[in-house]
Design goal:
Blueprint lengths: L1 H27 L6 H7 L4 H8 L2 H23 L4 H12 L3 H13 L8 H24 L9 H21 L5 H12 L11
Helix pairs in contact: 1-4, 4-5, 4-6, 5-9, 6-8, 7-8, 8-9
């Protein structure tokens, strides 16, 4: 029983660290997310923080994983489970948390190294996004809106790449409306019918 109790406390502390780190990065930006600051925010030493996550890159990878979980749970509830609409709501929210967008783009670039802790995270994320849009398009293909031989995986990959590229450009030029540009692309692809699009 003692071991199970200690395990449960460890899981709860990891969740507290991730939740707090998301708040700190959203509030103070990527530059303000030092290990020392994140550790202090949860009453730990840097060594204590390393006990739960090992390295800074491992911590940052889990922060991104937690961010995705929270975003999709939050916006799925607000958009009648329309996956494309959920995706757009997340992109709109990202404009409010530039520190998390910078964290994402930095780790995304670094994760090209197969040994980087975020490499598997981004591979899994890419696959899930391809599947998400693939499912939408396959359903519409069956309804006759797309050619039956349309490469749905390719479309999902391209939409994901467009979203990632927009985030990188937005960090350089915050006047870019990421969600509006992505919505135009989804409407042009037929993933969002024009009559339902909210972009002028």
């Amino acid at each position: 029983m003692a071991q199970r109790g200690a395990y449960a406390k460890g899981v709860a502390k990891r969740e507290e660290i991730l939740d707090t780190a998301l708040e700190v990065i959203a509030r103070e930006g990527y530059a303000g997310a030092s290990v020392q600051k994140l550790a202090a925010a949860v009453q730990l030493s840097p060594a204590g923080l390393a006990h739960y996550f090992g390295t800074k890159d491992e911590l940052f990878t889990e922060i991104l994983r937690k961010r995705d979980e929270l975003d999709f749970a939050t916006y799925r509830a607000e958009t009648d489970v329309d996956p494309a609409r959920v995706f757009l709501r997340v992109m709109r929210h990202n404009a409010e948390v530039p520190g998390l967008v910078e964290l994402y783009t930095r780790l995304h670039a670094q994760a090209s190294d197969p040994d980087h802790p975020a490499h598997c995270f981004f591979a899994e994320r890419r696959a899930s996004m391809r599947a998400l849009f693939g499912d939408i398009i396959e359903a519409d293909a069956r309804a006759g809106r797309y050619p039956a031989d349309l490469d749905t995986a390719s479309v999902g990959l391209l939409v994901t790449a467009a979203a990632d590229g927009l985030q990188t450009l937005w960090l350089q030029d915050p006047t870019i409306d990421m969600a509006a540009e992505l919505e135009r692309l989804l409407a042009a692809l037929g993933i969002l019918p024009h009559e339902r699009s909210t972009t002028p």
